[in-house]
């Protein structure tokens, strides 16, 4: 019957519409999480860390530091993989000495993981991708 076909199409359209609305709502919620790595300074740091709805990993680095440069592709890969689940920031310690002092950063690179504005952990020195991936997966679970 022609009426039944139209009824089936309406159900399908309704299902599609509901799925799309859920996807849009999810995107809107996760849009508060910046994509990629955000370069932070002393003026924006506290807002970035405390207002995030997800854990935040901040890389304290120096331009002249070879291990810091070595970590850049690892951090970029992690930022891409954990987009929407972890926020990533980086702080140049030479330009933001007060922040480095505040968090007792005495060597670079130093990575500090925050959740709800509080420090979850601190890693000094370069690490491999797998080490960071495990740490970030654990941060998401808790």
Descriptive account of the structure:
- The chain is elongated.
- Helices cover 49% and strands 20% of the residues.
- Strands 1-3-2-4-5 form a 5-stranded mixed β-sheet.
- Strand 2 (56-61), helix 3 (66-81) and strand 3 form a beta-alpha-beta unit.
- The mean pLDDT is 87.
- The chain contains 5 helices and 5 strands.
- By secondary structure, it is α/β, with parallel strands linked by helices.
- It folds into 2 domains: 1-31; 33-141, Glutaredoxin, CATH 3.40.30.10.
- It has helices spanning 2-30, 45-50, 66-81, 97-102, 129-141; strands at residues 37-40, 56-61, 87-92, 110-115, 118-124.
- The longest helix is centred in the N-terminal third of the chain and has 29 residues, at 2-30.
Strand and helix layout:
Blueprint: H1 2-30, E1 37-40, H2 45-50, E2 56-61, H3 66-81, E3 87-92, H4 97-102, E4 110-115, E5 118-124, H5 129-141
Summarize this, please?
This protein is an alpha/beta fold and 142 residues long. The chain has helices spanning 2-30, 45-50, 66-81, 97-102, 129-141, and strands at 37-40, 56-61, 87-92, 110-115, 118-124.
- The total beta strand count reads 5
Strand order of the largest sheet: 1-3-2-4-5
Instruction: Name the helicity range.
Output: 40-55%
The shape is elongated
Beta-strand portion reads 15-25%
- Oligomeric state as shown: single chain
